[in-house]
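Sharing a chain and its predicted structure for anyone who wants a worked example. Both blocks are below, sequence first, tokens second.
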Amino acid sequence: MAIGVYFRSGSMTADQYDEVVKVLEAAGCAQAPGRVLHCCYGPADDLATFDIWESSEAFEEYGKKIMPVFQKFGLENVPLQVLPIHHMVQPS
């Protein structure tokens, strides 16, 4: 079952987000198997992200790879909201 994962630290800046992305890309972790969609949104001083994953297992496997990066940026203790996806429309 697909899941949605909402992440909001309450203080993640655009510079911090961009640096996290660079570190993930350098580690070969920018593309995640099982991730259907990733978006980052909000004002530049308070960004949030929303991902859609094919399954909770795919998300958990990717979590093992990105947790060291999150720890480096002080984002490891931010609670995630994980919810089942009831319906999703994908472009054809």
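Comments welcome. The chain has a mean pLDDT of 91.
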